[in-house]
Amino acid sequence: MSLLGLGQELNIAERKVLHMPCIIIRTNVEIPSDRAKELKTALAVSWEKVPTKRERWLMIVMEDKQQMFFSGRDTPAAFVNFKIHGDYDIGPKNCEMLSEEFMNDLSQVLGIQKERIFVAHDVCPSWGWVDDPDPRAYGPRRSE
Fold first, then answer.
1. Domain architecture of the chain: domains with CATH
2. What are the tens digits of pLDDT across the range 108-124?
3. First to last CA, the chain
């Protein structure tokens, strides 16, 4: 059974360290295609600063031109929601480091002041993907 949809199989050792990170960025500025690619690369480099983490499983969602107010103003701002899907916690030091890295990335690529960027970290224990053989991935089953 293919877990990747590419005819590749995960070995047991790789399965044990599989944690699906997702970075969701909402901002009131426009993100042109070239800037989106630049930001994607910067965020992946930042994520890989966490030991053993690689871009392979990283998903990045960018929602630009959002109606957004921060401190009562609609000047350039961003909300970054960083989710780790799986039973895993990267720890406070890595969260602090990633918050700073993500703020730097958005500030440098999109020109948003770091004081107008908010980063939230969430651990999501219930998750899954197509062909996932692990029933725990979708959370607890409802009783009939």
1. 34-128 (3.30.429.10)
2. 999 999 999 999 988 77
3. 29
